[in-house]
Write a structure and sequence with these properties.
Strands 3, 4, 5, 6, 7, 14 and 15 form a seven-stranded mixed sheet that branches. The chain folds into two domains: 2-129 and 316-346, Quinone Oxidoreductase, Chain A, domain 1 (Alpha-Beta Complex), CATH 3.90.180; 131-289, NAD(P)-binding Rossmann-like Domain (Rossmann fold). It is globular. 32% of the residues lie in helices and 25% in strands. Helix 4 packs across helix 5 and helix 4 crosses helix 12 (295-310). It has helices at residues 41-48, 79-82, 123-127, 130-143, 160-171, 185-190, 204-211, 226-233, 258-267, 273-279, 288-291, 295-310, 327-335, and strands at residues 2-6, 15-19, 29-39, 64-71, 93-97, 106-110, 114-116, 151-154, 175-180, 195-198, 216-221, 235-243, 282-285, 318-323, 342-346. The longest helix has 16 residues, at 295-310. The model has no long low-confidence stretch (mean pLDDT 92). It contains 13 helices and 15 strands. It is an alpha/beta fold.
Amino acid sequence: MKAMIVARYGAPENFQLSEVPDPAPKTDEVLIRVRAIGVNFADLLQRMGVYPGTPKPPFVPGFEVAGIVERAAASAGTASDAEAGPPLRVGDRVVALTSFNAYAELAATRSSNVFRIPDALPFEDAAALPVVYLTAFHSMFKMGNLERGDRILIHGAAGGVGIAAVQLAKSRGLVIFGSAGPSKQEYLRTIGVDYPIDYTRDDIVETVRRIAPDGIEMVMDPIGGKSWARSVECLGPTGRLVVYGFSAAAGPSGKRSLWRGGRALMQSPKFSLLEMMRKNLTVIGVQLGQLQRRAGLLRGELGEIFQMYAAGEIKPVIGKTFPLAEAAAAHRYIQERQNIGKVVLQVA
């Protein structure tokens, strides 16, 4: 099969389109003929070698695929598989979470991480759903327990997770603050952000506190460093800070920078548990890769997301698609902050 290999950590140019052996699925794994691949900022961090758990090169990156079951699992494997309904069969249309092996024509992953999709759901939309919508849904409603009328600040509101969070917030009647660059301000208004914020010009804390003097209920912040400290300043009593990324550690050239990462780490707030108790604050950490061990939880959440999709409450915004062989261009597109919404790789 063909696959995009990260030959060495670093810039997008380190991708190589290679012919590699087909995966050999274990007894509890499903082999999927890939049709579409969701590209996430975490993939860029994998390529740079700064994402936790990233294998040593050469490796195939990526976390999510949509396609057709090529070979079903020989055994169910876990109790959560039994809860998923009838066993998967060859020819089933599915979406799946993977571990560093998505950018390929074939992908093998545990059956518990494979989910049937409706016939009406295009593969491109399916590939754009799991990582961003599960990250937002899990953060906001499972861990964050947000309720109608609560106020949320979404950093990177025009990105993949950002747009997913905006759509979910609108569906639940939340008041939405959203930050993005100057070229994306009008877009934020069109998708329903109540208070768009230009992070290059506006003081985010001052803007939030002017509108909500008592502070807001949640900030979703994938940036890290001093941004986390500023996000905490936006929160009021019972406020929740959601951290689900550390993009401050990624250099603009696409290469790993220990200096940049170290500086961002030094600028990150040091939380005192007693101070958090006194202020009634919560920090929620979300890393979807680690949640794959809770397949039953993710299956339930993804089921709710599929229902919202069918009801027209949410729909992935796919900013651009690239063929698999142009994964490097897809990474540059995201790295340069050109994307609005999700970037998807298509497999012929």
